[in-house]
Amino acid sequence: MRLEGKTAIVTGGGRGIGEAIALALAGEGCSVAVAGRTREYLEKVTGRIQASGRDALAVVCDVSDPGSVEELFAQADERWGKLDILVNNAGQSHSELLHRLPLDTWKHMLDVNLTGTFICSQAALKRMLPRKSGRIINIASTAARIGFRYAGAYASAKHGVLGLTRSMALETATSGITVNSICPGWVESDMLHQAIQTISAKTKRPPEEARQFLANESPQKRIIQPEEIALAAVWLASEEARGVTGQAINIDGGQVMS
Ligand SMILES: NC(=O)c1ccc[n+]([C@@H]2O[C@H](COP(=O)([O-])OP(=O)(O)OC[C@H]3O[C@@H](n4cnc5c(N)ncnc54)[C@H](OP(=O)(O)O)[C@@H]3O)[C@@H](O)[C@H]2O)c1
Question: Ligand 1 pocket, 12 CB below 6 A?
């Protein structure tokens, strides 16, 4: 058990990549607060964690709302009295060319994907800095490394997540805290299924072709599984990764090679 006695908050932990991360952290001995917008999803995940003999807390939270985030961290404080690991995983994407993108949608993409990561990280740092210990793991994207047509606002926000990661890593480098990003390529989740539907509808091609088109963006020509991301998050959260900070780790079948 690499994370015995540790406590974590995973945002967007009710489904998809966040669910896999919450389960993997718990599988290594961690107590996990699973946060997201939909209580039903959260309780399904916390039920599985509790059934495995670990402690878990389901907290409804909108990461773009500072009051809601403060309530999430307060509930974790009350339950465990300390926070070791924050995984900023909550995210949304939107498909539109930039010249047609409504300003409100641009702002929403930045609010959820970038500002949400900042708000949660700030709350975590306030708790981690006095203890000189902690891990912040941000789930960015290959869209943080390269531009993407039809995903300009999402890519801009995810590029911002890398800037935030690197800046926080510098500010915490001598405080026993590491801050890193994981940059997944296409991962099997509702976000992928939504992209497949959008491409299929726009191109009038069958969903299997749209799926293969996205898989082909990776030299491995395959979709990554959520558990592959979760294993990297566990490693970054572990003591073994104490020398790793300010990094952006691509898990994308070789789509981005830098
Ligand atoms: N799937 C991919 O191909 C892929 C690739 C690269 C990066 N990513 C990133 O990986 C992360 C997880 O994505 P996923 O693929 O697992 O997507 P997903 O299946 O659509 O899940 C998104 C999660 O984020 C939560 N969420 C969205 N907006 C939120 C908000 N304002 N406050 C709190 N929670 C919110 C959702 O909560 P509810 O369930 O309550 O709605 C859900 O748990 C995201 O940051 C995404 O950008 C995904």
Answer: yes
Q: Place 207 in a pLDDT band, splitting at 50, 70 and 90.
A: very high
**Short-list 161, 164, 208, 202, CA closest to 184:** 161
Residues with a known catalytic role: 154
CB 14 less than 6 A from any atom of ligand 1 = yes
Answer yes or no: are the C-beta atoms of 120 and 89 closer than 8 Å.
Answer: no
Q: Is 253 in the pocket of ligand 1 (CB under 6 A)?
A: no
Instruction: Encode pLDDT of 87-134 as tens digits.
Output: 999 999 999 999 999 999 999 999 999 999 999 999 999 999 999 999
CATH number for the domain running over 7-186+225-251: 3.40.50.720
- Boundaries of every domain in the chain: 7-186+225-251
pTM of whole model > 0.85? yes
Identify which of 218, 200, 114 has the alpha carbon closest to the alpha carbon of residue 161.
114
Give dist(CA 186, CA 156) in Å, integer. Answer: 17
Cα 63 to Cα 111: distance, rounded to the nearest angstrom = 8
